[in-house]
């Protein structure tokens, strides 16, 4: 009887494995085909966003609300948001999508999927319907950053913004979210794979292995830099200094509200523009709590990211100082009050719920391979009709929002369908 059950289980695992290998190969072939066709354009992408086109773009924009004019500045509409992984970037993305839609701004959107062919370096030709000289207001989807390529899409006055997160929290989140997509982690034994890995990372890690960048200095990788540099390599600080020349504002997941207040100030926006619900959060039971020793190991392993984080953390607080600490406190309180009002208006039972409890598929977030750990929301049943639209938009996850913006996500959907077929959760 027991050996029968074991045999059955074994057969299921083998069947899944075979299916997984076949499906992954199909995806890889499709990926290579699409990737190589867009790669061919590389040599021809010399032209930048022409000034005349940028002027034309300005005319089509419905200018943001009167209220900011009283601040003596005019709202910025040209924005590059470098969407880093696992840093609360989806919550910022939702803010940008809403702002862009409201003011009829032109997004540079990905084509066929939700990112710009990540982890390949960014190319203009990856933008949906891109033609030489095209100008856009907002670029904000996942990419591997390449400043020169991005600059071709945007008017010269564009604000460059990004978000960072404590490298330990980021590593923990990424390790959990991507572990089934990173073959290097499959052979880690034991209950606590994260601890096993951190106790001896070099024995599991290989820089050349498939998807290895999810395991080390992911911020460095996302910014188009070498994520395998040791923290004391002089190139690390050189790269950080170069990045600080590129970016006008660096936000922090840990100081999310303060970050939004600085965003509002930098872009001359209103508090209404920065209202948000926390998106893409994991259920708490999926979060591994690291001992101080493991935390130290994680920091050492992600040493380049730690230097990056420390550098911008210092500049962030210097900026808060200039902004005014009391003023910041007041603004954060106001933002909290307005967010809490929106929660009462929009969200059934006031908070996030497990994926299986989400009643409307429009609000179901994308889940990692093999599990449903990402929380989402139910929209209030008896919602005030005046707030229905704004609530729907605030609650819409990245994939569905991209679809609403007109992106045909066939590759993402195919991948989603395959992962769900192999791992029924
Ligand atoms: N407002 C706010 N403040 C602080 N932290 C936040 C916020 N919004 C999202 N999060 C946390 O960010 C993690 C998801 O990051 P991303 O949206 O960038 O992920 S993704 O790369 O787009 O998949 C995810 O972290 P983990 O839960 O640790 O995985 C979210 O909980």
UniProtKB/TrEMBL annotation:
One GO molecular-function entry: galactosylceramide sulfotransferase activity
Localization per record: Golgi apparatus membrane
InterPro entries in UniProt: Gal-3-0_sulfotransfrase, P-loop_NTPase
Membrane topology designation: Single-pass type II membrane protein
GO CC annotation: Golgi membrane
GO biological process: galactosylceramide biosynthetic process; myelination
Domain of life: Eukaryota
Ranges annotated as spanning the membrane: 12-31
One family name in Pfam for this protein: Gal-3-0_sulfotr
Key words of the record: Glycoprotein, Golgi apparatus, Membrane, Signal-anchor, Transferase, Transmembrane, Transmembrane helix
Family as reported in the entry's similarity comment: Belongs to the galactose-3-O-sulfotransferase family.
Name listed for the protein in its UniProt record: Galactosylceramide sulfotransferase
Organism: Zoarces viviparus
